[in-house]
């Protein structure tokens, strides 16, 4: 499995001196160690961006990595605000199962959906037929059928 | 999705006075709340047993619940020591995707694989074709192809 | 014991929509419940400010509350950046043991000094003779003898 | 400060294969690292016992270490069931501030009083006049004036 990390809340850390969040090292490496995951995988950190800052050039880079890699199962960690847009930009890639996930609360928080969401995405990426999916709130949505409901703080079917 | 809980390390709690673990309420209810899971589901607590104590009668009860329910996606939380035996006992059920999972460290621990494993199982149960699977260590194994390696503390393909 | 809360990193929370921290409810109430503290106490939330924003008027309010309360043991939670200045502003209050503490990482983080620091301050407030103290990094400093070393991320004797 | 560890719930770990707790490495080393404690200290692990198994010989060893060390501030981590008995056995030591603490839930649990209690004890050990004290439930009790209320799960004044 290929894992592409792009930043987002899941990887956010906190610097006291500046009293603001910044995006740190991919947390997924730490998650895999802590839970004893034995799944063979490669992690590539493509960028460290809040998803509101991810632009067309970034999406082209993500797409290029998905298309050119040898893996047929791909997990992408991504900020939640534009996760659906990035999923749409990958939607016509053939022959690969691509699952995007992220978190509404940073993995470094005591209460976070990060570990659960990565688990859900890992499970789906090994199980779904080729296509592009979003794994959030314990559900597997097909790209193009889902949006983030900001007020409710959850993803839902369109 | 139907969720059957049977006990095991994932649900273990600790009573100070007796200095030993006992199996408590299904932790999956708490996990779902904490991560904001919106997946429609029903939870049935069938038993609260260490998996070394699960016998043929218990397995018959688990099987009966899988066969007679209306759900086509079933998640079973189970102790790890005999998870593979229970999976084998369900293997010939037709038309349902059944995923077993559990944990090597209790969900109440700071460091635990419980939340991740439940996530993986939830992802697989919504994605795999009908069959019986075990979701542990970030992998989805087909029933009959997997064993617990006690010394290494992980599940592996036979 | 009287507990005055003023904000600071210890009480910081995170709002996804705005991608920035804000200061929430005093976390000390939650800490006391979680650890089973039985110490009789009253909590007054005076303000919710980053300590860089605490001004002379705020310090006058904190001082007024210390002087006019009936308690002889007072704990103040406070941002770390100007904790030493606030301690200095209280230094000549007679007949009361006043201990300031806070945290370098929010109490809502998995890894935080918040719970430990509140414990240290609670221990000192019940034990020290009248005076003004800062409890940080497991040490009890007298007001006027301590500064925050921002680069090292710790408090140290001047 | 001298820190003597004797075992107890605070240091309990869990071995899956045996489905029972055992007492592990002193957790206080880990706590100090995680919270950034800068207090100069030495840790001696005297024994790893459930406090119901601590006998007169063990108490003589603890006492000998308290009497013969050069430190004037001593922290002892101890199981809660006989913490009061050990405190009583040290009560006539002169010129030293000795504080005992422990935990009702293991430090490895998500919800635990371990970190808070160690903080309280550290604060008291640096602040109290010579004597023997127990720091539990956010309170500092003098040896001989306190008992564990097993049913209520807390320490209380006799």
From TrEMBL, chains A, B, C, D:
Residues 2-150 form the L-asparaginase N-terminal domain. Coiled coil: none annotated. InterPro entries: Asp/glu_Ase-like_sf, Asparaginase/glutaminase-like, L-asparaginase_N, L-asparaginase_N_sf. Pfam families: Asparaginase. It comes from the Bacteria. This is L-asparaginase 1. It comes from Rubritalea halochordaticola. The gene is ansA.
